[in-house]
Amino acid sequence: MIANDNNPKIRTRDYTWSLEFLAHYLMAPGCRVVLDAEQFEVLKAYLAHIEAVGEDTNFQLEMCVDYRDHATSAGYGVSWDNDGSPFQDDLIDAIMVDMVQNLGFVAGSIFREGYITPLEDIDGRIAEIRAKVAAKHNV
Predict the structure, then answer these.
(1) What confidence tens digit (pLDDT) does each residue in 84-109 have?
(2) Integer Cα distance of 44 and 109 in angstroms
(3) Any bridge partners for residue 125, and if so which?
(4) How far apart, in whole angstroms, are the C-alpha atoms of residue 92 and residue 80?
(5) Using an 8 Å Cβ cutoff, are 133 and 94 in contact?
């Protein structure tokens, strides 16, 4: 699926307040979330998997912004922080990297620009990531 393929003018919204309401404990102070509606649903699905890693990870989303509809910018900005066990840190980092690659961003660092992974595929992707990271850590 290609992000925003039905509308050449990207329609992002500031979902910061919505995410603060839904998952305030996963957000760093000053976090900003600007995505389109489909991207926001995918972000929430990935964050649910991160939350399941455990509260002791101290995960915080610092930013998740799609800049494609800004007149002077392109690309995206995503940052996060966590400090759990080495296994938890590697797992969260791998989940976030997968999310960034599959959230519909357009930038040179994205393998399939504009691609948004379908919601129904996320659980399987996370299971594969978890298995790879667990094997690396002999967990």
Answers:
(1) 999 999 999 999 999 999 999 999 89
(2) 22
(3) none
(4) 10
(5) yes
HEC per residue, 35-97: ECHHHHHHHHHHHHHHHHHCHHHCCEEEEEEECCCCCCCCCEEEEEECCCCHHHHHHHHHHHH
Summarised one tens digit per residue, pLDDT across range 67-90 is: 987 666 678 999 999 999 999 999
Q: Which two tokens stand for residue 89?
A: 């840190």
- Domain ranges in the chain are 13-134
Each residue's pLDDT tens digit, 11-56: 888 888 887 767 777 899 999 999 999 999 999 999 999 999 998 9
**Residue 133: C-alpha distances to residues 28, 49, 93, 95 (Å):** 25, 14, 10, 10
The label of the residue with tokens 């691609």 reads 115
Euclidean distance between CA atoms 32 and 128, whole angstroms: 29
